[in-house]
Design brief:
alpha/beta; 19 helices; 7-stranded parallel β-sheet; single chain; about 40% helix; 6-stranded parallel β-sheet
Amino acid sequence: MSNSSENKHVAIIAFPFGSHLMPLLNLVLKLARAAPNCSFSFIGTGKSNAILFPKPYIPNNIKAYSVSDGIPDGHVLGSRPTEKLNLFLKTGPENLHKGIELAVAETKQRVTCIISDAFVTSSLVVAQTLNVPWVPVWLPMSCSLSLYFYIDLLREQCANSAGDRTFDFLPGLSKMRAEDMPLDILYVGEEVTLFSRTLASLGKVLPQAKAVVINFFMELDPPLFVKDMKSKLNSMLYVVPLPSQLLPPSDTDANGCLSWLDKQNARSVAYVCFGTVVAPTPHELVAVAEALEESGFSFLWSLKENQMGLLPNGFLERTSMRGKIVSWAPQTQVLAHESVGVFVTHCGCNSVTESICNGVPMICRPFFGDQGTSARMIEDVWEIGVIIEGRVFSKSGLLKSLNLILVQDEGKKIRDNAVKVKSIVQDAARPEEQAAQDFKTLLEVISES
């Protein structure tokens, strides 16, 4: 690739929020190292770029450029988490063009290809204007991609269905239920936002791409789903998301999570974390605490500092001998630790991937977006975890799930399946497997543009 990629300039357009940033950077790192003579201009907002850059592991052929986040001066964001998403998307192609102009001015190279987070659909307009290939990257759970091609049917069926209604019209995903669907794609009328309109348009926009990159393992996706999506897209390329291959492990463990785990028995610890975006209600947090206390199991709980005051009085003192609560944990390394036996999770895509890669069973409490579809795959397709009873935390429900996975014979199948799935994804990363060929094809798209 070194010669064929020379003088190529790829603009990377980020969806600068939450869990989308690191996996996109991970892909760009992989590309930049495989094509060292190609320039990669990473376009995000000032805030998102400050999270990612500069870092010593980022090679010289990746440079960051900042564009507007769309938030007007003096504007105070409300409580709705989608507000900042809508403001950014509202900036449209003009904002992205400004980032590209900055990159072209500094590198003295025209952009020859655009790789974008699939949620930034206005990047297609930019690619068309520049007459270059557009390659969107699908960063949510892969199976959720199908929903956007059947959105009219889903809206019709969900409007007239109970939550446990399954959808046999989704190829390979017949176990999906109405209650698993992302609310954003079901919004109609006054509830529609720019973000939900963007999602609803994906089934029409993505077929215009040169290729769509899937950030997951083809070997874990139902074959009928893969066949159906490939029939709808020009090209569908799987790039296995193994951050440990590229991103170095966190050099920060100020809270002593790993040394604490070193003192625990193998597969005995419940790791609890709900990501950086969502937060359970105070009532649910109390239920989690009460279940952990009564269970007798060791636990490591990554909990935001502003929520610690919601814990029951005396909880920290009563559980101090077998529990540890921290404001931040190096999750990749925690899930790789042999002491961790179960992950209590919101089913964010990055968290699910990390758990799968380390063979850790999951207890799922999905909140929004693709988390419901991820939870369904975990429980009913891969059978490597369970969805919490009633889909909200209760003391009895969490106790039941913890005992099932950590102790009971009935949970042995789940534990064994998690180990099998770990082996599958490790094999998927081998040089002779499909993902390596798909990555080579992606490099060819870049080099031939």
